[in-house]
Write a structure and sequence with these properties.
117 residues, mainly alpha, two-stranded antiparallel ribbon, elongated, 4FE4S_WBL, Transcription factor WhiB
């Protein structure tokens, strides 16, 4: 059976094609459970709907468990690197280095310098 081309991450039918639906592996291992994390990542390897899973996870800011073969932290960093934002101070557009960065580098440096005085 071939998996149909899935064009929209909002179409919930894609989920039934995921490797995880037929697996007994815990897809939400504890952060300290390295073996569990690796087992869950193996389930995602070669999954036909990994792209839809990743898109949904980022769109919903779902950082729990393994999705599309990535941990929540890995997905959060991927999202932060790819999503340009406006600086909270100067309103210039910048690409954040970490998920919770709200200021561009010049404004962050200026804020740090002000705090040291």
């Amino acid at each position: 059976m071939t998996t149909p081309l899935l064009t929209s991450s909002t179409d919930r039918d894609w989920r039934r094609h995921g490797n995880c639906t037929a697996s007994d592996v815990n897809m939400h291992p504890d952060d300290s459970d390295h073996r569990g994390e690796q087992a869950a990542k193996k389930v995602c390897a070669g999954c036909p709907v990994a792209t839809q899973c990743l898109v949904e996870s980022i769109n919903l800011s779902d950082w729990h468990g393994i999705r599309a073969g990535l941990t929540g932290g890995e997905r959060r960093n991927l999202d932060a690197q790819r999503t340009p934002r406006r600086c909270a101070r100067c309103r210039d557009v910048f690409v954040p280095r970490v998920h919770n960065q709200i200021r561009c580098r010049p404004c962050a440096r200026a804020n740090d310098l002000r705090g040291r005085r």
